[in-house]
User: What shape does this take?
Amino acid sequence: MVSEEIIGLIYAVVALFSFGLSPLLYKVGMKNDLHVLEANTIRSWGALILLTPILIIYKLMPYIPWELMVFVIFQH
Assistant: This one.
């Protein structure tokens, strides 16, 4: 089983990428007259779509290593 420190690190990295993409979304939004709240909503939905399969797989099969789950999800 993966330690809680590693799980926290994975969450931090995913949040880092999510917040790192927000300026790009804001730039696209400014070109397309997209409001900042709409851009934030798109970013939130993206994070939800990315993290939901990880949560479902973890809850259904808790003995699969986190590294394998993240690798499989990012490969598809």
Remarks:
- The chain has a mean pLDDT of 76.
- The longest helix spans residues 4-31.
- Residues 12-75 form one domain.
